[in-house]
Design goal:
- The chain is mainly beta.
- The protein folds into three domains: about 100 residues, Immunoglobulin-like; about 100 residues, Immunoglobulin-like (Sandwich), CATH 2.60.40.10; about 110 residues, Sandwich (Immunoglobulin-like), CATH 2.60.40.
- It contains two helices and 30 strands.
- Strands 1-3-9-6-7 form a five-stranded antiparallel β-sheet, with no helix packed on it.
- A hairpin with a 4-residue loop joins strand 20 and strand 21.
- The longest helix has 25 residues.
- It is rod-shaped.
């Protein structure tokens, strides 16, 4: 009985030794540092996987990936070649690249799979898809609403993303009311269409210019990126808060006057607010010929309401030595936002006293000639 027990024990040990030895001979450690990765739909994940031979003989490992959901694709390569089997020398390692393609149309969640190197040598991996995937085109912006005055342009930054499986060429257009102008710019160039590769996005600048006479209010600017197979739309919003306008003129509209050299002339000016928002801190200035001067009363207007006007008296002083003729005096009414310029034609006349002096000189010359003729003409 004792002999049978020892015999059975020896047979058991003998049976176990080859199995343990075979497992040890085929043992390969599969390693990668990044085992859990977060990605967006449509991205590609590249794993650098190391196969380490912990035995004293060359080991061959069949490579595969299991557990990926339907519709997910993968590839295994070594260098520039696709690899299905790898040989590893004793106490050395080989590196392969495992590439996993996440579909565009995928549910948000965690997906687990396994990289196998034969004989039960496996590497569990996980990919977390951080957002719900789609198979479509997206048109988005971080700032859909811009507020400003009617005499300015509004520029929006828009992202066009191609979530389809193919490169797409999108035509760009805007649906606006009559008088509005919309232009598209990409990479510094004005465009009417753009090409976007699968899974990629492109930034587009949208410039919106309102009509000249647009009223204050909020306006919708729908834009569309489309082709025969896919499209996306986005509604921008422009809030018009008013328009600045100013006009410098006279009550009659006449921009001319006359002046005597060395004297003053007062002009009544009218500063009108032709916009839709109040004008604040309106100042007046002038540009004159040399040695001329212009004084304004008042020189600054605190505020002018839309549609209202304010009267200013300008006193023009000409130089003493000004010759007779026409001169130009420019005057400007300016607020921090807008200005208006008016050029006045000023005719200079000589003083009356000089006219009498001239007449007396002429009379003296004529009298002298008559005297000389009478005295010496009869001889």
């Amino acid at each position: 009985m004792r002999i049978k027990v020892w015999t059975a024990a020896l047979l058991f040990i003998a049976a176990m030794l080859p199995a343990s030895s075979a497992f040890s001979a085929g043992e390969i450690t599969v390693y990668t540092p990044r085992t859990y990765i977060e990605v967006a739909p449509g991205e590609e994940v590249n794993y650098s996987v190391e196969l380490m031979n912990n035995t004293d003989s060359v080991q061959r490992a069949e490579l595969s990936v299991t557990g990926l959901p339907s519709g997910w694709n993968y590839s295994i390569s070594s260098g520039s070649f696709s690899a299905k089997e790898i040989a590893v020398k004793p106490d050395q390692q080989q590196t392969v690249t495992v590439e996993v393609e996440v579909p565009l149309q995928v549910q948000r969640g965690v997906y687990r799979f396994t990289v196998s190197a034969g004989n039960g040598n496996t590497l569990p991996l996980a990919i977390e898809v951080t957002e719900q995937g789609t198979y479509e085109t997206e048109l988005t912006t971080d700032q859909p609403n811009i507020e400003g005055h009617a005499d300015t342009s509004f520029t929006y930054s828009v992202q066009l993303r191609n979530r389809t499986a193919e490169t797409q060429n999108y035509a760009l257009r805007a649906q606006t009311e009559q008088g509005w102008q919309v232009s598209f710019t990409s990479s510094g160039e004005r465009v009417s269409s753009v090409e976007v590769e699968s899974g990629e996005s492109q930034t587009i600048s949208v410039k919106v210019t309102p009509p000249t006479q647009v009223e204050a209010g909020t306006y919708k600017i729908p834009i569309v990126a489309e082709n025969s197979s896919t499209s996306a739309s986005l509604e921008l919003e422009t809030a018009i808060i008013g328009k600045y306008g100013i006009e410098l003129t006279t009550p009659s509209g006449l921009l001319s006057t006359d002046i005597t050299a060395g004297s003053d002339r007062k002009l009544e000016l009218v500063v009108k607010n032709t916009g839709t928002v109040p004008l604040e801190d309106v100042s007046l200035s002038s540009s004159t010929p040399i040695d001329w001067a212009v004084a304004f009363e008042p020189k600054t207007i605190d505020t002018i309401a839309p549609g209202d006007s304010s009267t200013v008296v300008a006193t023009i002083t000409s130089a003493d030595q000004s010759l007779a003729g026409d001169y130009v005096v420019s005057m400007t009414a300016r607020s921090p936002e807008v200005s208006s310029n008016a050029s006045f034609r000023v005719s200079v006349k000589t003083p009356v006293i000089w006219g009498w002096v001239g007449i007396l000189l002429i009379a003296a010359v004529i009298g002298a000639l008559v005297y000389l003729y009478r005295k010496y003409g009869r001889r």
